[in-house]
TrEMBL record:
<feature type="transmembrane region" description="Helical">
    <location>
        <begin position="501"/>
        <end position="521"/>
    </location>
</feature>
<feature type="domain" description="PTS EIIC type-2">
    <location>
        <begin position="287"/>
        <end position="623"/>
    </location>
</feature>
<dbReference type="InterPro" id="IPR003352">
    <property type="entry name" value="PTS_EIIC"/>
</dbReference>
<feature type="transmembrane region" description="Helical">
    <location>
        <begin position="335"/>
        <end position="358"/>
    </location>
</feature>
<keyword id="KW-1133">Transmembrane helix</keyword>
<dbReference type="InterPro" id="IPR050864">
    <property type="entry name" value="Bacterial_PTS_Sugar_Transport"/>
</dbReference>
<dbReference type="InterPro" id="IPR004715">
    <property type="entry name" value="PTS_IIA_fruc"/>
</dbReference>
<feature type="transmembrane region" description="Helical">
    <location>
        <begin position="379"/>
        <end position="402"/>
    </location>
</feature>
<dbReference type="Pfam" id="PF00359">
    <property type="entry name" value="PTS_EIIA_2"/>
</dbReference>
<dbReference type="InterPro" id="IPR002178">
    <property type="entry name" value="PTS_EIIA_type-2_dom"/>
</dbReference>
<dbReference type="InterPro" id="IPR003501">
    <property type="entry name" value="PTS_EIIB_2/3"/>
</dbReference>
<dbReference type="InterPro" id="IPR013014">
    <property type="entry name" value="PTS_EIIC_2"/>
</dbReference>
<feature type="transmembrane region" description="Helical">
    <location>
        <begin position="603"/>
        <end position="623"/>
    </location>
</feature>
<dbReference type="GO" id="GO:0009401">
    <property type="term" value="P:phosphoenolpyruvate-dependent sugar phosphotransferase system"/>
</dbReference>
<keyword id="KW-1003">Cell membrane</keyword>
<dbReference type="InterPro" id="IPR013011">
    <property type="entry name" value="PTS_EIIB_2"/>
</dbReference>
<keyword id="KW-0418">Kinase</keyword>
């Protein structure tokens, strides 16, 4: 992996910054880049760095700030270091940063960006290193401090004892390299040599050779990601989490040196030591990774489908008694059809890649087939499919079924056909049977019962009706529960009762708008992954035109947090719609129907939608903070 000394020189160090504020400090250090011809447009680079700072402050808790940006104004990657004797407030919250690392990254240098930041962050967490830099008297002394740190990090220790480490975390950035640094530092103190392979977001780096594996006394796997274990057969192996690698590196190393770690045999179950997490915690993390695998592949389909339909409705849609309709044969009708294709495929894609994450490639096709069947109620005589919830069920069932099938020993003559024919066909028939003959009938009966329930409630309390319709709408975001409520409201428009559609129109956009608002409020990006934050912008666009499916990726990746938040927010919005007497003569929802003149009280309708979205966002953030608070404390 590239280290920071390759991008740093004494000409890029300033030990007495004159700047008093963040913008001036960035400008002052950018001048060093300009002098060394690191950047070609100083103003553009500064603008890009400040834009990055607006997203979330790069100030760390130990008196350090690392402003950075990928910019078209950068010619080659570099790092400038500035030392402020009085401190500069980078966060805007009164905390002072005394050491400023300004990082210049070319627009297309993804791997370089992550390498520099990861390597730099690992050094910044060393208190001694920062204190040495703050006390440096000359620019060259700062460079020498880093050079010495890196030399000590990679030098070969005497004694001849050699270990191998493997680190990786779910996201693949910070904790991957923190675990690497912790293991290397502990090995240095004990007096042994260790080579650590990192499985980060830019891929696998620093992999050991076959000869190094043979020479190693043992292997320490401190990773939350899947690892190629076959190469370690016959070696002493500890298999634990990245967190243990950060917190207990010396204990892990001594476990190997004292020959207390078990010998790994290929095809055995995961190596277990007293450093392992509990089965419950391990299973929870494994399930999360499986769901995120499916969600990451599904997101592009949601974005493509949602945004194309949203644009088509906004520009080419016309209000009719049957809803917001794009005229047949028009240009925007064709664009909408392309978007509908994306929405049609997103559920099978979700199911397929969840199954694949569990059962590998052989599970992909039956998982997609299961997702298609789950989302198409015609297979089991239901008016609506099971939506993304059915896709998750199908993916998990297929994945574990395929994993079970792979344990059998098949005759050598048919082994080549097992992964491409026998397992996919068997798994496809298995999931089809499950949905058509076991799950299908109860689903069909449930849809009928829900419709009958709404019929009975329609003559009773508006508050109870609003809560029920809102909960149904928020539960599956365009899935079978929401569709039952929607078709019930559409049917009442023809009977001259548009207030039901009016209330539901307020609830329809709550889930995507609420998730968009939640990602925006998560300014430090601690609760949502970067991919989810980007998807929040797409969810906002979908919510504005009443496409509730924009929230599905969030619900699929964290259902026990997002779904309750969506349900409560939608119930609030729908109940308010009933109480305020909102009516809607168009079978559609979201802010777009307010602009079409189909709603009798547009401003109040907008207030109902905003209230529900705010409730959803706040509940989601509260639940996520509660859920991750213990994890964050354990890392701090």
């Amino acid at each position: 992996m590239r280290n920071i000394s390759q991008f740093l020189s004494s000409e890029l160090v300033k030990i007495n910054l004159q700047s008093k504020d963040k913008k001036s400090a960035i400008k002052e250090l950018s001048g060093l880049f300009e002098t060394k011809q690191i950047i070609k447009d100083k103003n553009q680079y500064i603008a890009d760095v400040l834009k990055r700072e607006e997203e979330v402050s790069t100030e760390l808790d130990n008196g350090v700030a690392i402003p950075h940006a990928k910019s078209a104004a950068v010619i080659k990657p570099a790092v400038a270091i500035g030392i402020s004797r009085n401190g500069i407030d980078f966060s805007g919250e009164g905390r002072l940063s005394y050491v400023i690392f300004l990082i210049a990254i070319p627009q297309n240098a993804n791997d370089t960006h992550i390498s520099i930041l990861s390597n730099l962050t690992s050094h910044l967490l060393e208190t001694d290193c920062i204190q040495k830099i703050k006390g440096a008297k000359t620019e060259q002394e700062v460079v020498d401090i880093f050079s010495k740190e890196i030399e000590e990090e990679h030098q070969t220790r005497k004694g001849g004892r050699f270990l191998i480490g493997v680190t990786g975390c779910t996201v693949g950035v910070a904790h991957t390299y923190l675990a690497q640094k912790a293991l290397e530092k502990a090995a240095n103190e004990i007096g042994v040599t260790i080579k650590v392979e990192t499985n980060g977001s830019i891929g696998i780096e620093n992999s050991p050779t076959k000869e190094e594996i043979e020479h190693a006394e043992g292997i320490i796997i401190a990773s939350d990601r899947e690892t190629d274990m076959e190469r370690f057969a016959g070696k002493r192996v500890i298999n634990t989490s990245a967190k243990k690698g950060i917190d207990e590196p010396k204990e892990l190393i001594m476990q190997i040196l004292d020959k207390k770690a078990p010998i790994y045999k290929h095809n055995q179950k995961k190596t277990v030591t007293h450093f392992e997490e509990s089965d419950t915690e391990s299973q929870h993390k494994s399930l999360y990774k499986v769901l995120m695998s499916g969600v990451s592949y599904m997101i592009p389909f949601v974005v493509i489908g949602g945004l194309l339909i949203a644009i088509s409705l906004a520009i080419g849609g016309e209000p009719t008694p049957n809803g917001l309709v794009i005229p047949e044969g028009s240009f925007w009708n064709k664009i909408s059809a392309v978007g509908s294709t994306g929405f049609t495929l997103m559920i099978p894609i979700l199911a397929g890649y969840i199954a694949s994450a569990i059962g590998d490639r052989a599970a992909l096709a039956p998982g997609m087939i299961g997702g298609w069947i789950a989302n198409n109620g015609s297979f089991y005589n239901s008016t609506a499919g099971t939506g993304f919830i059915g896709a998750i069920i199908a993916g998990l069932l297929v994945g574990y079924f395929v994993k079970w099938l792979k344990h059998f020993k098949y005759p050598e003559a048919i082994q080549p056909l097992v992964p491409i024919m026998l397992i996919p066909i068997t798994a496809s028939l298995f999931i089809a049977f499950i949905f058509i003959f076991i799950i299908g009938m109860p689903i069909s009966s449930l849809m009928t019962a829900l419709n009958a329930m709404l019929q009975r409630l329609s003559t009773g309390s508006l508050i109870i009706l609003g809560i029920v319709v809102g909960l149904m709408q928020g539960f599956d975001m365009g899935g079978p529960f929401g569709k039952v409520a929607f078709m019930f409201s559409v049917g009442l428009i023809a009977e001259g009762q548009p207030q039901f559609m009016g209330a539901q129109a307020c609830a329809i956009p709550v889930a995507p708008l609420g998730m968009a608002l939640a990602t925006f409020l998560d300014r430090k990006h601690r609760l949502f992954q970067s991919e989810e934050t980007a998807n929040g912008k797409a969810a906002l666009a979908m919510g504005l035109v009443g496409i509730s499916e924009g929230a599905i990726p969030f619900a699929a990746s964290d259902p026990f947090t997002v779904i309750p938040a969506n349900m409560i927010g939608s119930a609030v919005s729908c109940t308010m719609g009933f109480l305020f007497g909102i009516t809607d003569t168009v079978a559609h929802g979201g802010p777009i129907v307010l602009l079409l003149g189909a709603v009798n009280k547009p401003l109040i309708g907008l207030l109902c939608m905003m209230a529900g979205a705010s409730v959803t966002a706040l509940i989601c953030l509260t639940l996520k903070k509660y859920k991750y608070s213990k994890v964050e404390k354990s890392y701090n």
